[in-house]
Design goal:
Elements (H helix, E strand, L loop, with lengths): L12 H19 L1 H9 L1 H5 L12 H38 L4 E5 L5 E4 L1 H7 L3 H4 L13 H13 L3 E10 L2 E14 L2 E10 L1 H23 L3 E5 L5 E4 L8 H4 L10 H17 L3 E8 L2 E10 L12 E7 L1 H60 L2 H28 L2 H5 L2 H16 L2 E6 L8 H22 L3 E8 L3 E8 L6 H5 L4 H12 L3 E6 L5 E8 L2
Parallel strand pairs: 11-12
Antiparallel strand pairs: 1-2, 1-5, 3-4, 4-5, 6-7, 6-10, 8-9, 9-10, 12-13, 13-15, 14-15
Helix pairs in contact: 11-12, 14-15, 15-17
Length: 546
């Protein structure tokens, strides 16, 4: 085995090894010269990567080029960072200036360091004037101590707290919400305030509270029962006990469960109409909760489909028992009056028939005998007396004709002998002869199956209509049409006169129209008037055939 011996270090040994290494490195650099030149083009990109890898030592010129590239990259990066910082600062300033809330910074003594435009408008002073002023002067007197305690607490323990307070600015109290955050800046406490003006919110709250109070007062003191129900008549609110149940017992039940099955169907249709049509509906129900003696009116208000909540309607329930009883009493009284009037008409018609018959039989016969006696006397007298008797016979003839007219007006025999259609045609002919107003008659049936009472009532209505035309219409033509179907008789009376207003039609003092309407209604018919000023008048009458 060869033994190795350590030899003492020679003078200049380290320098010699260093020179040898530099020569070797220089030779390697020459062999890779072209690669080094290409690498310089990529130097900037490689210097910016975080990965570390071994690279050969650079020569003096190459090293300066790399350093220059590094400086260029750093300068570009610094410029980009400055632009980003300026953009962020600009956005922050815009946000600070145009924030929808008041932003104020205070120092540890409560002096205003900075604030935005909204805060200046709230405090009613320019920004420059407010800087350096104590914020405490704007705090309402009753909140000063609480505000100072809050600042002291945040000075000891930096945190963020939110509270409400009143500020005094522009000679008015401004309710606000304060969010205060304390922090350190250069070893000094800074308070940052975000203030929201609650004036509008407080005003809305006050208005809402007043509205609710008014609504509750109205609902609680209303004379009617008021409920809120959904589409299926589920009760969600009731203002007072009803039908022996408390408000708690009624809430959550169904409104239609308190009425009979027939009325429940009616009520459900009423509710559906309120929900579907957007209009108020009303239905009247008896027998609520089994009480058959009382009547109730259910008025459902229109439904507005708004929001995500299930729509409801307000129903007003009113006890209308007394109203119904009064209504029934009036209806019975009206029926009794109508029957009484009908009986009067019957008695009047019978009296007219009797008077007409007696006048025709007694007075007519007496006048005829008188005429015959005068004719006999005329034959027995001389010329002078005969002339006088002839004059007396002529007067008797006129009296007989007048008696016939009176008998006809009292009760036209044609009505009993030939029926209503012939009587109306005859009456129209008489009307035309007396007034010189042209009459046109149309009939679809010569014979009508009518009782004497109905025929007499309708004939009197036609007589009254023709009288009105003569007195008021200023017409030149009157047309009467009589049509009959299997069960209904229709009579139309139309003229080309000046017409009549709705106010005149509805006037309760128009006794002629009232009498015509009542006559038709007594026989179970319908009476309608259609007219307008300057366009004539048309009367439509319909009555059942019996």
């Amino acid at each position: 085995m060869k033994q190795l011996h350590k030899s003492p270090p020679r003078r200049g040994g380290r320098e010699a090894r260093a020179r040898a290494e530099r020569k070797r490195d220089s030779a390697q650099s020459q062999e890779k010269g072209e690669a080094s030149i290409e690498d310089r083009g990529k130097g900037a990109a490689e210097l910016t990567t975080p990965a570390l890898r071994a690279t050969p030592p650079l020569r003096g010129g190459e090293h300066r080029e790399v350093e220059r590239l590094k400086a260029d990259v750093q300068r570009v990066q610094q410029q980009h960072e400055r632009e980003q910082l300026r953009e962020a600062l600009r956005r922050y300033e815009e946000l600070y200036t145009f924030a929808p809330m008041s932003l104020i910074s205070l120092d540890r003594r409560g002096m205003i360091l900075d604030l935005n435009e909204r805060a200046a408008r709230m405090l009613a002073f320019p920004i420059e004037w407010l800087r350096g002023r104590p914020f405490l002067v704007f705090v309402a007197r009753h909140d000063v101590s609480r505000f100072l305690e809050l600042l002291a607490r945040l000075r000891r323990e930096p945190a963020t707290e939110t509270t409400s307070a009143d500020l005094f600015a522009n000679e008015r109290v401004v309710p606000v919400q304060l969010s205060i955050k304390s922090s350190l800046r250069d070893h000094e406490v800074i308070y940052r305030l975000a203030i929201v003006d609650l004036s509008e919110t407080k005003g809305i709250e006050k208005l809402l509270k007043e509205t609710l109070n008014n609504w509750y007062s109205l609902v609680e003191n209303a004379p009617d029962t008021i409920m809120t129900v959904d589409r299926k008549t589920g009760i969600t609110f009731v203002n007072r006990p009803a039908w022996g149940y408390s408000t708690r017992a009624l809430t959550g039940t169904w409104l239609n469960q308190y009425v009979s099955k027939a009325d429940a169907i009616k009520m459900e249709k009423c509710v559906a109409a309120a929900f579907d049509s957007g209009q108020s509906t009303t239905c009247e129900v008896t027998g609520v909760n089994g009480d058959q003696e009382r009547w109730y009116s259910f008025s459902f208000g229109p439904v507005q489909h708004r929001g995500k909540h299930a729509p409801t309607t307000t129903v007003t329930i009113r006890d209308i028992t007394n109203h119904k009883r009064t209504e029934e009493s009036l209806r019975l009284s009206r029926e009794q009056l109508r029957e009484f009037a009908a009986r009067l008409d019957e008695v009047r018609e019978e009296e007219r028939k009797r008077v007409a018959r007696e006048i025709h039989d007694e007075l007519g016969q007496a006048l005829t005998i008188l005429k015959m006696d005068l004719a006999w006397v005329q034959g027995k007298t001389q010329d002078g007396t005969r002339k006088k008797i002839k004059s007396m016979i002529a007067e008797v003839d006129q009296t007989i004709e007048r008696v016939r007219q009176i008998v006809t007006e009292l009760r036209p025999s044609i009505l009993d002998e030939l029926g209503l259609s012939a009587a109306i045609e005859w009456q129209l002919a008489q009307f035309q002869e007396r007034t010189r107003i042209r009459g046109i008659f149309e009939s679809s049936s010569e014979t009508l199956n009518l009782s004497r009472d109905i025929a007499a009532a309708l004939f009197r209505v036609v007589q009254e209509a023709l009288t009105n035309v003569m007195r008021h219409a200023i017409a030149t033509v009157v047309r009467i049409a009589v049509k009959s179907t299997r069960d209904v008789l229709s009579i139309s009376i139309a003229d080309n006169g000046k017409g009549i207003t709705r106010q005149q039609i509805d006037d309760p003092k128009s006794f002629g129209l009232v009498g015509m309407t009542e006559r038709v209604h007594r026989v179970g018919g319908q009476f309608n008037i259609y007219s307008s000023p300057g366009r004539g008048t048309r009367i439509e009458i319909s009555a059942p055939l019996k």
